[in-house]
Amino acid sequence: MGAPVGALADLPMSAFEDALAQQLADLRRQGLHRQCRTVSQVNPPQVVAEGRPLLNFSSNDYLGLANDPRLKEAAITAIKEFGAGSGASRLICGTLAPHAELEQELAAFKGTEAALAFSSGFAAATGTISALLTKRDFLVIDKLVHACVVDAARQCGATLRVFAHNDLEDLAAKLKWCAEKRAQTEPQARVLVVTESVFSMDGDQATLAAMVKLKDQFGAWLMVDEAHAVGLYGPERQGLVAELGLNGQVEIQMGTLSKAVGASGGFICGSRLLVECLVNCARSFIFSTAPTPGAVAAALAGVRCIRSPEGAERCARLWQRVDRVRAGLRQRGLAGPPRSAILPLPVGEEERAVALSLRLRERGLWLPAIRYPTVARGEARLRLTLSAAHTEADVDHLLAVLTQEFSPASAGGKL
Ligand SMILES: *Cc1c(COP(=O)(O)O)cnc(C)c1O
Q1: Omega before 368 within 30 of 0, i.e. cis
Q2: Which residue from 117, 127, 241, 247 has the fewest beta carbons nearer than 10 Å?
Q3: What's the count of helices (H) and strands (E) in the chain, helices before strands?
Q4: Is residue 4 predicted with pLDDT exceeding 60?
Q5: 247 an active-site residue?
Q6: Closest ligand 1 atom to the C-alpha of 258?
Q7: How much is the CA Rg of the chain, to the nearest whole Å?
């Protein structure tokens, strides 16, 4: 025997490994390399990471429900009765009682005829948009919508128009263009506008009432992603559409069960015909295993809690924390973001954001750096999220550390 058989360089796989190493090196060079950090224990709002306790200001568990004993109990009971897995897609294996119950609850919550659960919010968006649009149609999206909508745009093949963030004039111009194109070529073509109600990275709100007027004026439909609004706005905390009294004027309401609801999964609320269409045409519904009984039961318990007086209390506590942080930031001359549970702290350069995030971790705070491609290049930031689980003391500690470590991008920064 000569050289050891299977020396790494001789393996046909090595070209593959080289290509991957190259790809990762490129990301590192741009300050865009990412890593998952293991968290060993979660006791909101605390996590233990690499052996040290950190106050978590990064979660979308806005109402602190993800670790609520009732949600955990609901999941355990459903697993005992229906199993850990759901076996197949619902068209193959059938709808379990928890799925039906969750969908009834969601429709009642949102005030729509029907609802459909998906295994994630991501799957709800891609499945729905691709079920409704083909390449003869038009999709008009806000510049800052979530990646799931961008992917859906690619999948469905519709003509895509992107309007400047929250810019109604630009939206009107894009809708006019679509209406003219449609009149010339394909009168039956569909035009769908998609926006988030509360934007995931900036916490600002879409001007939904004006958007409803515009889409009606131009014969378009509207889909609103309420991922960051469910649990926080509206009389029963259904979201911003309900808060603004626009129920019945938005064709498609989308949400996730993974954020304020405290569980996992996504949903669409709308008419019975919409849901029937999705059951027949949404590929992420048809070709994906049904959400697990545990996740569905936890989500149901989460929605019920949100609608209850206790949900109102948790929500009020969250807003109290938000107002305290905003006042503190303003007082310290740091940027005053919009009133939202998501408070972006702009940094700018990718490496600076990462370094700042590491420094805060050393001081016991978990605030992730958000970089391209989640936000635009050169617009890296810390994304601070608050939860009803934070105490006033938690929030005061955060403000004290931020005062020392953070100065806004516009001021040149300390880093
Ligand atoms: C998180 C998020 C989603 C995806 O929801 P998941 O349930 O996490 O897949 C969709 N849209 C927006 C705006 C989000 O922030």
Answers
A1: no
A2: 247
A3: 15, 14
A4: no
A5: no
A6: 7
A7: 23
